[in-house]
C-alpha cells in the first residue's frame, strides 16, 4: 500500500495542526498560512503521522488516497 | 469490547468512530445521530455558507465511500433519549434499545434562546440556510450577542449589504475571553465596516418587529439572529447517574464512568495541563477529544490524560484570528509582536506569571508557531 496526499486548498483554514503532527510532510505558506504538502507520497514510516494529521485537520481539507 | 456505541454523529463522534477502527477495533460499531444529514462541518456555516460562497455539499466531513469503509451501523435522524448505565443500553427515540460495552457521548450543544418567537439561531446547516435566504442589500439584521458566532455572522451580513445592528451586554465584546484591549480592536473593526455595534445593551425578548431591550426600548429588525451562547445536549442523560454540570463531567482521561467517555462540545473534563476543568466549543478539540476518548476506551489501563492546548480560529472581514491556550483565566495581556493599531499582532496571556494563551491576528504561521511551542513547554 502506498499513500498519496491531496489537499483541498480552499477548505484549509490555516490551523497548522497538520504541521504540528507531521512537520516533515506539511508546511504553511507565509502569506496566509494555507498548508503546503512537502511530500505528497510519504513513505511508510510517515503514514501514521499523516493519518493523524488528516484526522485532526479541522477543515477536513486533507484527503488520503491509499492504493 | 464487542459493541461500541457513539452517540452524536458530528466532529467528535465521527473522530471517535474512525479512531476505534484505525486502532483495530473490529467489533460492532453503532453511530447514532439526531440530524438526518451525514456528518458535516459547522465552522463554515457562519462563514462561507452564510455568505453563499459555498453550497452545503462542501460541508460533508466524509464521503459515502469513506463512511462505508468504517462498517458502521449508522442510525441517522434518531436521537438518544436515555442511558441505562447498569444495564448498559442506550434508548432511542424510535423505541429501540442499543446495548453497548463501550460508549462515547458526543452530543454537542444547542443554541441558547431568548423569550419570544421568530429569531434565527446558528447551529445547523438548516439554520444557516434559513438565515441566508433572508439576507441581502438593505435588509436590516439585528444580531444579539457579539461573541465569535455573532461577530462572524454580522461581518458576513455586512458583506452582503445588510444593515447590521450588533447588540452586546458587556461593555467590550469578548473581553472576558480575549481581554479589553483586543476586544476593543474587534469592536473598532466592526464599526469601521459599518456595523452599528451597541455595547452594554441587554436584550430581554424577541418581538414581531425586532427585539425589546431590558430598558423597554424596541430595536427594529427584518431578521433577528440570537447568538448568546449554548447549552450542552445532556437532557437524554437525566437520571442516568452520570454527573452533568454544564456538560458531562469527565476525569482527565475524558471518562465519565467505567467504559463511558465524552468528547467535544458536550464534555467538561479536567485538563491537567492547565489544572482546570474546562469545556471548550472548538472544532479541533472535538476531533482531538473524540480520538482520545476512543483510544482510552480501547486501552483503559494505559490511558493517556487528555491535556491539549485548545485552539480556535475565527474569520471576520479580512481578519483571521487564531487563539491557542486557555485565555479565559488570564490576569494580564501583553502585545509581544506587531501592533494593535496595525491589526497585525500577537497577544500573550498569562496568569500568575505563567503563559496560558496566545492570540494572533494577521501574523505569518512561523511567528505564531514559536509561541505555540512556548505554550507546550510552560510548566504547570
Ligand atoms: C456556526 C458555527 C461556527 C463555528 N465556527 C468555529 C470556528 O471558526 N472555529 C472553531 O474552532 N470552532 C467553531 N465552531 C465550533 C465547532 O463547530 C464545534 O466545536 C464542533 O462542531 C463540535 O463538535 P461536536 O461533535 O462536539 O458537537 P456538534 O457538532 O454539536 O455535534 C453533536 C451532534 O450530536 C447530535 N445530537 C444531539 N443530541 C443528540 C441525541 N440525544 N442523540 C443523538 N444525537 C444527538 C446533534 O444533532 C449533532 O449532530 C463553530 C460552530 C458553529 C455552530
Ligand atoms: S490542519 Fe487542515 S486546515 Fe490546518 S493548515 Fe493543515 S490542512 Fe489546513
From TrEMBL, chain A:
Ferredoxins are iron-sulfur proteins that transfer electrons in a wide variety of metabolic reactions. One of its GO terms (molecular function) is electron transfer activity. Its cofactor is [3Fe-4S] cluster. The keyword Iron-sulfur applies. Keywords: 3Fe-4S, Electron transport, Iron, Iron-sulfur, Metal-binding, Transport. InterPro entries: 3Fe4S_ferredoxin (IPR001080), 4Fe4S_Fe-S-bd (IPR017896), Fe-S_cluster_ET (IPR051269). Residues 3-31 form the 4Fe-4S ferredoxin-type domain. PROSITE patterns: 4FE4S_FER_2. This is Ferredoxin.
UniProtKB/TrEMBL annotation, chain B:
Its cofactor is FAD. Residues 311-377 form the Reductase C-terminal domain. Signal peptide: none annotated. Keywords: FAD, Flavoprotein, Oxidoreductase. One of its GO terms (molecular function) is oxidoreductase activity, acting on NAD(P)H. InterPro entries: FAD-oxidoreductase/Apoptosis (IPR050446), FAD/NAD-bd_sf (IPR036188), FAD/NAD-binding_dom (IPR023753), FAD/NAD-linked_Rdtase_dimer_sf (IPR016156), Reductase_C (IPR028202). It comes from the Bacteria. SUPFAM superfamilies: FAD/NAD(P)-binding domain (SSF51905), FAD/NAD-linked reductases, dimerisation (C-terminal) domain (SSF55424). GO terms for cellular component: cytoplasm. Residues 4-290 form the FAD/NAD(P)-binding domain. PANTHER family: APOPTOSIS-INDUCING FACTOR 1, RIESKE DOMAIN-CONTAINING PROTEIN-RELATED. This is Pyridine nucleotide-disulfide oxidoreductase. It comes from Winogradskya consettensis.
